[in-house]
Amino acid sequence: MPEPGKKPASAFSKKPRSAEVVAGSAAVFEAETERAGLKVRWQRGGSDLSASDKYGLVAEGTRHTLTVRDACPADQGSYAVIAGSSKVKFDLKVIEAEKAEPMPAPAPAETPGAPGVALAPAPELEGSAPSLEGSNSAAAAGPAPGCPGAPDDAIGLFVMRPQDGEVTVGGSITFSARVAGASLLKPPVVKWFKGKWVDLSSKVGQHLQLHDSYDRTSKVYLFELHITDAQVAFAGGYRCEVSTKDKFDSCNFNLTVHEAIGQGDLDLRSAFRRTSLAAGGRRTSDGHEDAGILDFSSLLKKRDSFRTPRDSKLEAPAEEDVWEILRHAPPSEYERIAFQHGVTDLRGMLRRLKGMRQDERKSTAFQKKLEPAYQVSKGHKIRLTVELADPDAEVKWLKNGQEIQMSGSKYIFESVGAKRTLTISQCSLADDAAYQCVVGGEKCSTELFVKEPPVLITRPLEDQQVMVGQRVEFECEVSEEGAQVKWLKDGVELTREETFKYRFKKDGRKHHLIINEATLEDAGHYALRTSGGQALAELIVQEKKLEVYQSIADLAVGAKDQAVFKCEVSDENVRGVWLKNGKELVPDSRIKVSHIGFACNLSAKLHFMEVKIDFVPRQEPPKIHLDCPGRTPDTIVVVAGNKLRLDVPISGDPAPTVIWQKTITQGKKAPAGPAPDAPEDAGDSDEWVFDKKLLCETEGRVRVETSKDRSVFTVEGAEKEDEGVYVVTVKNPVGEDQVNLTVKVIDVPDAPAAPNISNVGEDSCTVQWEPPAYDGGQPVLGYILERKKKKSYRWMRLNFDLLPGLSHEARRMIEGVAYEMRVYAVNAVGMSRPSPASQPFMPIGPPSEPTHLAVEDVSDTTVSLRWRPPERVGAGGLDGYSVEYCWEGCSEWVAALQGLTERTTMLVKDLPTGARLLFRVRAYNVAGPGAPVTTKEPVTVQEILQRPRLQLPRHLRQTIQKKVGEPVNLLIPFQGKPRPQVTWTKEGQPLASEVNIRNSPTDTILFIRAARRDHSGTYQVAVRIENMEDKATLVLQIVDKPSPPQDIRVVEAWGFNVALEWKPPKDDGNTEIWGYTVQKADKKTQEWFTVLEHYRRTHCVVSELIIGNGYYFRVFSHNAVGPSDTAATTKEPVFIPRPGITYEPPSYKALDFSEAPSFTHPLTNRTIIAGYTTILCCSVRGSPKPKISWFKNGLDLGQDARFRMFSKQGVLTLEIRKPCPFDGGIYVCRATNLQGEAQCECRLEVRVPQ
């Protein structure tokens, strides 16, 4: 029957087999690949072999040979050959010459890896589970590299990964990881972690040590994590990471710490530790959480203390809330509290605590939030409920950051008033994730933990007793289908060895362990272990009892005749020894010994009597023993790539000859024409032509192995060509038997062709594809669609439920980003290879309709349109616009121009006069045309009479000022239909030749290149249509700089002052005079300084002149253009005389500053403690300075040494040294001077401390 378990197809058509050679001889290993040119590498101990005096490497086409010359014991070990992603291991054993015995070579074995994936030794290949014998140590180590069975793998970084371990409290355990170093230039970097973040290198100490070593012989690095005096808090998930310059690999493993738990105690860690699903007892959840990490949500309500009764003081009180303790504890106490309650992931604890503190803030969207964590058993349902502040608010539910969509009955959304509920049915491990409820910009989070029930054993194993060579099959039934189990023999885990001694089979909830041919070494105790227990059974293997079917008989024969002695036994493999008078007979030319089947013959030439005795052996016709009714076995279905093994039991005496043949269909035979004397319908029937291929090879991918009681037909890596009808024929001299076996090879479908993309929209498209050319022998169940961005390498799956059809509408894409699509076909076997990627496409939506479409002008044959760009253009940009029109009441649109226009205005010409037309405009981009915008009312193509009207701009309605030499450009818009006649005049006269007029259909322009003073004046413009006219008047003022003032003179000079006077300028520059600038200049220096600016009067006084100096004065006039070019200047200098001056000092009245004393801050009552020095303070003012006196109860304190008096800046201080109760009383401060006297008092109470 076919071997269960799918394996990828091998790159080898012939694989090397393990060999045993005598020391000193040569060992030759041969391998053949499926195709020529494939690179083949030979390895030993994980290191590549190269041609040398020791090793010979030969490659001829598809045939590759490795020769180990002059073999010695140092050469024995594990070898491997690698081609592509396939790897085959084989062993070389070297024995001494005197110990050499003929031995059949073991069957070839192959351990191919998955294509394109680094081979990592699975736990079945390592057999290195930590030992639990004793509590002192439990090493997680495997066989040494280079030894037979060592899982050397040059494709991955790990040669051996650390395995799960168990230890009791106080015990020790060592986890080992081996890394191949043959191809590494530098030692790899290895880090050990507990949980997700805790780096164990910082925890090295009394309980934890890290060791590393390097074996130069095997070139393997050994890294060890040694834990001593294990505690319960050490349990959990661990991770080992190894990294080199360009590679990275990691491995997760668990540590279980056993501790005796009394009745009534609750093992929180085992209740909330994530169970393992994947190979090796580890799994990775949807959120990529590390397996075995202690779940903090399980500690939210800690029901019982996990402490052992060794110290009752350390036991935690009942109903203890760890998070409540952390929230009220200072940060310095976090580490102590975490250690006390077994929390190992400190970083995760701080992150959770920070989130809880943020949630303490009052929420505006939620009245009741989700709990921090929920727990549900696998297969049950859970309800997550929140209560909103706004019953009409929109709610979104997220799972690991992705919005949850309505899909069947898995997720149910309920809304009752302000409550929103998410119900998750049939919870599985995939639902173990973080969930969020989002309302507007606020959200609340929780974590759902799915507790997997333990896998229980429903039907245990049964003890078996077999004979040597018989087939053994253990069967056990568990509570769940597809559960992960481990088979153990005498406490050691069984693996799928290269010799395929053990076969593991899963059939729903049933698990089978099959031993093909039992030996005495297979006897022992076998166990099947699950997460919920184990089943144990004993296998007893007994040797076969030898029976003599026919013993030798006495003979009497003549001399010189032949005497034949025969003996028949029950075991054909037993070799008989013939004795004569107690001495062994040695065969020679006269005595012959033969072994035929179950009979032993002895013949000899005797020298007396002539007698011959013949023995006729027992005969039995051949027979094929198949467990099938009607001799028509069912079709044998095998998955492509798996091993097909047809084990056919046979019997017969003598041993029959077995012939395997495969029926090959050649095709239909063409109907032949009827013979002249044949009936007319003789050629009307069609028939199939079959041919049979003889299968007789004993090596290679397809081979036949035959023994006395069975014949085994094996196909390594079944292919489509292996499908067909196989004929098994057994023959011996007695008879013949024949059976037909139908083999069907099923496979995943072929990859579909590249999908086609159509109906590309703004964020969606339609994907269409064709079914695969070959469905793999099973109907296609559906399709899986993936997409990625063109410049990305990450494919994203679009559907999780299979698509039954051949098209799908993909949505939620980003506009303007190029995408590619590919599709997988899925049947009952699995998923096909991906199809080729589709042609890149870019989701682009058409633009929206243009806005503000309006008719600007209409004539007898033209219509002028104007519009604005669309509000949404999109990533495709804007290629242009199309303009169309149609007659009123008609639906046929006519293009107004060929192609597109980029402008937002258009003059539609050659229209029929009087027609009523509708116009529409569309915007175009790469995605095509957008929605059109149409005129609201039909437009009549006919020119309309419109009165002429001048639209004089506001700035032209007032006087227009221009400087001399500047250009003048006056634009005046007007309206009127038909085009009006424009006329310009200046004060009723025609314009000068240098004044230019330019007219257009909508405006008129008066233009002067360089203005002059004579261009000033009043201009009139008139527009006329027939007898209708409109006029406007413009005042143009050309201004220039003014002339200087006139008749400047000095009116008077006195002291330091000079009075000036002048007349306004003769020419004001055709604008108002803004003012004058007056300047002075010393006669000596002739440097001019401005005295007055923007002075508007025509007379002024210049002050602050220097006595004895002579001054000149000048005046500039200013207007809007600027100052005059020249100034009016005094002709003669003005001298400032030196008059005689006598100083008379001022007289002042003497002031009296005397003042009587007065207290500005009086004394205050005081109560003091005895023995402590005290002071009394106040402040006083007075002139002259008053005399200060202090009194206690009327007694002067001036002579008492226990009192010190200070006076500084009017602040008076009395210091009492170490007062006692007798110092209490009334204190008076008195101030006295010539103007009077003042005093203030206070009460001082002295108390004795109790």
UniProtKB/TrEMBL annotation:
Gene Ontology biological-process entries: cell adhesion; muscle contraction; sarcomere organization; ventricular cardiac muscle tissue morphogenesis
Domain of life of the organism encoding this protein: Eukaryota
Residue intervals of the Fibronectin type-III domain: 751-847, 849-944, 1044-1139
Record domain Ig-like: where: 376-439, 453-547, 622-742, 948-1035, 1157-1245
Alphabetical UniProt keywords: Actin-binding, Cell adhesion, Immunoglobulin domain, Muscle protein, Phosphoprotein, Repeat, Thick filament
Renumbered residue ranges of the record's region Disordered: 102-146, 666-685
Molecular-function GO terms, alphabetical: actin binding; myosin heavy chain binding
Keyword 4Fe-4S: no
Comp. bias regions, Low complexity: 110-126
Keyword Transport among record annotations: no
InterPro entries cross-referenced by the UniProt entry: FN3_dom, FN3_sf, Ig-like_dom, Ig-like_dom_sf, Ig-like_fold, Ig_I-set, Ig_sub, Ig_sub2
Gene Ontology terms: cellular component: M band; myosin filament
Family of the protein in this entry: Belongs to the immunoglobulin superfamily. MyBP family.
Function: Thick filament-associated protein located in the crossbridge region of vertebrate striated muscle a bands. In vitro it binds MHC, F-actin and native thin filaments, and modifies the activity of actin-activated myosin ATPase. It may modulate muscle contraction or may play a more structural role.
Annotated protein name in UniProt: Myosin-binding protein C, cardiac-type
Organism lineage string: Eukaryota, Metazoa, Chordata, Craniata, Vertebrata
Gene symbol of the encoding locus: MYBPC3
